Amino acid sequence: MLWKESSPTDRLLVYDNKIIVEFPLLGESVQIDIDGDVRDACMTPNYLAIASDRRLYLVRKDALDSPLCCDYGNDGLRKLEFKSPDLPLTITRSTIPEEQPTSDFGWADLKEPRSDVILTSTLTTIYLVTTENGVSRVTRLFNEDDYARKRVISCSVVQIPHDVRIVAATSGYDHSLFLTEKGAVYALGTGSRGELGIGLAPRVTELTELEALEGVRVRRIVAAGWHSGALTAEGDVYLWGWNHRGQLGQEKEAIELYPSPLDTDLMIKRIQMRAHQTALWTAEDEVHPSIIFGTNDIGMPPVTLRYFDVPEKEPKLISTSKEIIPDDPTAHLSTNRNVKMVFVKDGQRC
């Protein structure tokens, strides 16, 4: 498997030449065999987009056997005109144990772009990034609301102020981030909660560089819900957006309009986000996060820091401002930007 991702109602598993969509609530799994190698895939709540080395596919999740497709040309992506494929995709359906709705599919493997074709999606919009001769183009490929009204797929090119090569893209509810090969970060979409990192911007329709990160070499970008993050080549973390459930590591509800550095001495190797959480790893090959900010519970909780194995550091308690409950497997601490930590080793606080 190349990577996986999940939502509260379904799961996407991506392989070299097939896609598997699982619907736990329905107890059903659908395998889609792809003509060619899978380059990228993404999904909105209702639609799935797949890019192979030959075609682009768009398909409703409740009609996976009726996709629309667009062919590639030898000279790259030609004019995007979607139609029903000449040959139907091979669809295999099977049953899986029915489960309660959950988005907890483990912390999914991060996608590593395998080609010059990248897909990313918000709740309603799918963006396509293609690169030719070292210069990338971003296309607004599909919007659910527009398609529901017009029943026509209207693609449009997004303006980029400079010629850049984009190597990664990620999205939250209604905003997207793009990372260039030189480590610059660009944003697009809604910014009413600071999620774009460029100040209070109700809506941005062209790629806009995050000036607050100018001169910082970013190697990983993440976004989910209404917050965003960046991991630098030096292991530093920047977070911004809406801290309404502690996902930015702050004690009080707040909005960070610009990227704010996380004050910690730890070198972070990996970062991921969910709608209301931020997870950090201090070792690249670890399965479980070393640190988790935020919660799925309603309301603003004390920030939860969960530590597992931290390399080259002896487990110890570092300046807590709240009493630790002995029977609590994790410590719930009130923190601020000077992050106060609890280390846990072998399931026990130290």
UniProtKB/TrEMBL annotation:
InterPro entries: RCC1/BLIP-II, RCC1_domain-containing, Reg_chr_condens. Transmembrane segments: none annotated. This is RCC1 domain-containing protein. RCC repeats lie at residues 183-234, 235-284. Gene3D superfamilies: Regulator of chromosome condensation 1/beta-lactamase-inhibitor protein II. It holds the Pfam family RCC1.
